[in-house]
Amino acid sequence: MQQNVDTQRFLKTNAFYSLDEDLPAEEVQNSIEAVIHQTQTIVNGSVVKLRLTHDIFIQGTIILKNTFLYGTAALKGERLEVKITAVQFKSSILPVELTVYDIDGIEGIYIPGAINRDAAKASADRSIQTMGLTGISDSWGAQAAGMGIEAAKSLMSKKVKLIKVMVKAGYQVLLYDEKQKNTD
Q1: Which of 51, 106, 160, 166 could be a cystine partner for 37, CB 3.0 to 4.6 Å?
Q2: How far is CA 30 from the centre of its chain?
Q3: Helix (H), strand (E) at residue 49
Q4: Which CATH architecture has domain 28-112+164-179?
Q5: Which SS3 state, helix, strand or coil, does residue 22 take?
Q6: d(Cα 111, Cα 175) in Å, to the nearest integer?
């Protein structure tokens, strides 16, 4: 009799497991949490260093928390797009197709003011291109000076065209496997 009472008490305290009620749905997570490892000044084509904040599995291999990932940056509007094509762990290189998403769920890291910097760089580039020599004769010295000025203009123009953005250490991002888009 005592055993039956204990069984009833057990069943009552665990009533939330009954078949009459719906079980809570499992939480589905399709992204990987990471952070920018260190404050970085980035231009198009730069390598961005990220760090995992949780252990993950890639192709059956556990990649430990705090492992570094490296991606290639591309500035597009007010977004810094970062693509990761491989993960190096121990002595293995694992091919991946990860894209960085900001916490707002949009592809790329939000960089406010990047468009304004782009416009300022284009304006400075136009100003450099209009620089020149006026009133110098056709002597060898003048031609050499002209070539030097053209070389300096070319170098300055290339430097001006580089739009630089800064991403701070600890900035949280989500990594999304682009292969999932094909299977969804």
Answers
A1: 51
A2: 17
A3: strand 47-52
A4: Beta Barrel (2.40)
A5: coil
A6: 17
